[in-house]
């Protein structure tokens, strides 16, 4: 690879700086000229899995309406071919395993009755950082039509996008105060303030704004505990807005409600300067936004689990748990050990069910802190106006 090759975070930061300055970024223009969302959740149609925040943003900036992305190898294994002359899009990811083609002793690929190459998954001893180039569904020959893919994906969906958004908001049990003209999160009172639903252009706009404020709500010390002390107009304030806007975009893509940041032009300028001065900030923003999205999207799943089981004495991949003034994220479970991440430092470690910390995390996850009502005279700290 060329010595002049730029890391993904640098490429993405430079692209976003240009688009933020031009007013064409997905944050400023959530709807494209053709009327379709500027951000759709990128997905691997073979595995059914999505892509992490930084990769998802990078893929979305390519402007395709088709959400399907895969590598040339994945396409080949599925019996598809990348169209000649197609240019791949770079992603970075932690690689824990690899899908390999099954081969004969002579090295020939083994194919099934349907003509597709048989594969196997090989687990690595340790996680490695990997690069790959993906191709959009429109760049691949013989792949089923997008309409067919979307129809299959929609099968079994019981709730509409707006019903999913309503359920997400309800499941958080966040305190939401309706009234007034402003939408903001008050960290001191731990309250979300929203105008009355009837004042919004439509229900979709209401849920988009509500999700954005819920993203701020996750920063409270009893949840993800992010720094949120900056005053309106400060760099710290702009950083929190960047994280909330990115998380709202990810969640809107997941729920298919879209996102709407509004006409906050001042933030765009601050974000552009931020990324120009420190391109790696896009990696930090993406990481925090992914944690926010995981936290909110998993709340409903946890509620469903609680309704079907009387007790849960283990941890689940994706759990984000506030415990002893920090939070822990369950990244994966391998055998009897859990791969964990502590706080926002990125510190990773392995934990066994016999460790004392394990019991504490299970108890904290099953019994989250109860929110207490605050007296009206408590001062406010508006975030996300």
TrEMBL record:
InterPro entries: ArdC_N (IPR013610), MPTase-PolyVal (IPR041459)
Domain N-terminal: residue ranges: 7-110
Domain Polyvalent protein metallopeptidase: residue ranges: 163-287
Taxonomic classification: Bacteria, Pseudomonadati, Bacteroidota, Sphingobacteriia, Sphingobacteriales
Region (Disordered): 366-385
A Pfam family hit: MPTase-PolyVal
Record-given protein name: Zincin-like metallopeptidase domain-containing protein
TM spans (from-to): none
Species per Swiss-Prot/TrEMBL record: Mucilaginibacter gynuensis
